Amino acid sequence: MTKITISNNKIEIEGHSGWGSAGNDIVCASISTAVYFLIHMSNCKYKIDRGMVTEITTKNTDSKTLNVFIDYAKELSVQYPNNIEVIYEV
Length: 90
Prior knowledge:
Elements: E1 2-7, E2 10-14, H1 26-42, E3 46-49, E4 52-57, H2 63-79, E5 84-89
Parallel strand pairs: 1-5
Antiparallel strand pairs: 1-2, 2-4, 3-4
Helix pairs in contact: 1-2
């Protein structure tokens, strides 16, 4: 399961969704696309571990872009509740 933890100034992403095998997982691909959208649209800082984005600093991120990411992550967690969890620490 992928866990996305959203707090005041950062978003943490951990785990693999497990919907499919690596390279063939539509849930993981959806999350990755949303993460890179947020990074490139907001020009925010991020950390990479083993080739995956694990943390995004959202302190100076455009709120509209950030809200689009959060809404998308929430919708994915509704559609794939066994594969993605969104946690709020606000």
